[in-house]
Amino acid sequence: MLSRLSIQNYAIIDELDVDFSSNLNIITGETGAGKSIILGALGLILGGRSDSGALKNREKKCIVEGTFKNELLDDHVTTFLKERELDILDELVVRREIAPNGKSRAFVNDTPVNLSQLNQLSSLLVDLHQQFDTLEIGESDFQREVLDALAGNFPLLKTYRQYFSQLQATRRKLDTLREQKNQFNKEFDYHQFQFNELEEAGFKENELEDLELELKTQTNAEGIRLALGKTYHGLEESEEPIIRQLKTMVNALQPYCDLHADIPSLIQRLQSAYIELQDIADETDRISNHISADPALIEKINDRLSLGYKLLKKHGVKTTEELLAIKRELEEKLQAVLNIDDEITAIEKDFAQQIQQADEMADKISKARYAQIAPLEKKVNIMLAQVGMPNARLQVAIKKTNLSDAGFDEIEFLFDANKSNQFQPLRKVASGGELSRLMLCIKSLVATSMNLPTLIFDEIDTGISGEAAKQVGVIMKELAGARQVICITHQPQIAGKADAHYLVYKAVKGDSITTGVRLLNVDERIVAIAKMLSGEKPTAAALENAREMVMN
């Protein structure tokens, strides 16, 4: 609910503050007094285009600020604020500033926002109806919401949308799997060839590294044998073998064991060295006897390494383990091709069940919508006659389409202004005034069922008077029982229904003219309405008529 509108330095407005009631607010005033200027200023905080030429004083900035009661904000507004990390306070303050250089800034609760964000928020706060505007009544989303509101479909739609969201997730998963399968199928033969090549090679863990070592051993066999032979000769077969020398040393020290305390330990160490060197000599002899160059083995190793090097280079790796890892990965990909069909079949089954569930729920929603078409058409057409459009007719058309998050209905409001039986979509044939009055009729029917923002009507009374104007006032009064309504009007019959009546006037301030707004008391309202009936100097009959309008 718009509780306060403040305007500074805009057009012919120096400074202006208006406090609105929560019900029906009527704004009247002479032509040219500045009613449209107030709406123009309001349009700035709704995201409208700014123009430095609109500044009254070119040396000061223009500020327009709207204050909205926070406790009356709906969930959509609260969600908007939370998603953008904007403060949620007792009051929601939307401000627009225009500097003398033409630069514009917007704020929500003193936090800067861009115009796109301001537009999104304002659409949740204020519904402004002006002649020649593109009104939401011509949009299919709003038309569908009207039927859903009348049908009480919103709780069922909330549940349906959860089902539909799951359905969409399953569809995306199924599409992904099918795409994977197509990709797998394209690569299957190549992966199979690579796997068969590695499988046929049959490399074991660390095999290439072990073969490289074995090849080095084979190619250096003669040198290894010579070195081993020399070692063995020095230990066992030279003129004075090291092992025999150690034994001689032990024998030489043995007689003096008891004569010196350190000799036994020396003998012990020499005996240990003797045993160790004897063992080394035996091992050296054994190894030497088994070392020999085998040309056939060398050729076999070279062939094996050649195959291994070729595969390492092909796959861009350096070790046997990396090659085996590639083999395991290829095996998994080949297995995935075999498994993916089973997975696709299972998900297709789930998807079919989910479509059936969503279809059944959408059908239930659709039937509830169909049930409201005739009553809506009847009520709206009666109301259209009441508001001065006796020849106008509304017709609701529903066509079944693909499932969406709103069901499977495509809804179109069709309009015939002249009983021609040639119904066309609203957005193509209805004039601005017709759309405004039609919107008033429809929104009055769904005001208690939909989250409607503050409704502002301008020029809704164009082309009507008398009983039709009175009926517009009656409808507005009923609508204002559920939602805040602000209406700029020239019709006394509508002004008489106000909960709060504001007069826009021009005043001379110094050498300039400025616009002012004031809330009228009962007596002032009677005079203002009487002037609307009979002119600047109202007659006694006009005053009495005005009094009756206000009191009733």
TrEMBL record:
Stretches assigned to coiled coil: 160-221
Keywords recorded for this protein, A-Z: ATP-binding, Coiled coil, DNA damage, DNA repair, Nucleotide-binding
GO cellular component: bacterial nucleoid
SUPFAM superfamilies, alphabetized: P-loop containing nucleoside triphosphate hydrolases (SSF52540)
Matching Gene3D superfamilies: P-loop containing nucleotide triphosphate hydrolases
The RecF/RecN/SMC N-terminal domain, residue ranges: 1-509
Ligase keyword on record: no
Matching NCBIfam families: recN
Protein's name in the database: DNA repair protein RecN
Organism listed in the record: Flavisolibacter tropicus
